[in-house]
Write a structure and sequence with these properties.
This protein is α+β, with helices and mostly antiparallel strands. The chain is built from 10 helices and 9 strands. The strands form 2 sheets. Strands 1-2-3-4-5-7-6 form a 7-stranded mixed sheet, sandwiched between helices. Strands 8-9 form a two-stranded antiparallel sheet. Strand 6 and strand 7 (249-256) form a beta hairpin. Helix 3 (56-66) packs across helix 4 (87-108) and helix 7 (151-173) runs antiparallel to helix 10 (274-296). The chain starts with a helix and ends with a helix.
Amino acid sequence: MVIDKIYLTLNPIYQPLTDPIFYIMAFYSRISTICGFDTRGRSAPDKVRKIHKSEYQVAGRNLAEAFANDAVARYAIDTNDAAHWSEAKKWSLHLKIMQALTYAHCLRGVVTAVGSNYDCTALWMPPGTHMNDFLTILRSGLYWSMFKLTSEGRHRLFKEFFPLLHATKKLVMGDRDEDSYYLVYIGTAPAARGRGLAKELIEHTTRQADAEGRACYLESSNRANVGLYERLGFVIRRRIMLIRADKQIGLDIMVREPLIRKKGSNTRRRTVSQNTIKRSQDVGKDLQEARERATSSQ
């Protein structure tokens, strides 16, 4: 609808005025989901469902709560030049960024959730998609949220974090960089952990990836989650470090190769040659060293 397009374009600029409308829309979506009669035909609350853009605030808030104490998610917020900020101010910016990321993925990627209260939410970029265009960044509110970061926060985000993640994914995936499923974020609300929701949500997309013969890629900021990802078929390909904080922060880069079904229902996982892995690791080391030299000189 034309009205919807105008609203989506103006929302980031006039968000203080339009927030009440979105809260009403999100409240309606939640009630509809709980009652099981969503007009968009989404599944019942206990089933994996695709999140609509009208739900971005509630889904983004639950994602923000899941990553409330995550060092990577708050890497651009918990900086030395923001030491005078109150925790409430930091949380507010963290929340806005996570909600903007959720909205951007509703526009360009795929957002899935399970549970009547968005207990577990995942942000995916399917093959051939990205959210780097200026209009998406503007419409989602990412531009305005990131503009509120401190000078050090913007440096960490735009000069270190984004370039490192982009270059690492390209090195690890090679010519499959644009032909794989990218799990950008997945988070479970603290009260809903231990119920297998993350497993259910990931398998919902990996089954589709298997059917298409495509790999899945993720960066894990929490080593405690690596075991879950490994049980789902992911393998650590390398580890990268963010180095501008008081202590280095690591991310495990993991790739899941698709399962190939053979006759007789036997399956095997596609393998990548050790030469390919070693080549990406060697180039990655060169990249890391160059990045450290560039960062230390600034």
